[in-house]
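[step 3/7] fold_predict: job queued, chain A
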Amino acid sequence: YEPAAGIDRFATGTPPILQVAAVKAAADVVAGVGMSAIRAKSVALTTAMIELADKHLSPLGFEVITPRLADQRGSHVALRHDDAYRISQAMIARHVVPDFRAPDVIRLGLSPLTTRFVDLATATDRIVALVTSGEHLDIPDERGRVT
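[step 4/7] structure written:
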């Protein structure tokens, strides 16, 4: 075996048909909806989540660190909290799966193709419930390599 020079070394025979079918289906959805509509929903979702966080999570020690200007943010909302790691682990147990970033940031990814506005309210309610109950305090603050 002698690999080809450059990127060609990664080319293989026939691509897996199921993977190609999944990519085609996803591309068809994006093409049918259009990027401007997807971006518009992304902005609407992040704006709504920021408003929910300001109203319901800020009193519990959360700080929204995502830019307030829509053209300066992507499709996620980042929240800072002193106990972010344990809260993020408790969120996972309640079926709200965030992305934790050390030392104190919880990121909520809001996919415009799959996230509904009701999902934002549900997630916010679950976060409020677990923090006000102190449920997260039962989780050790010992971090593995993957969070």
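[step 5/7] annotate
The chain has four helices and four strands.
The mean pLDDT is 92.
exit 0
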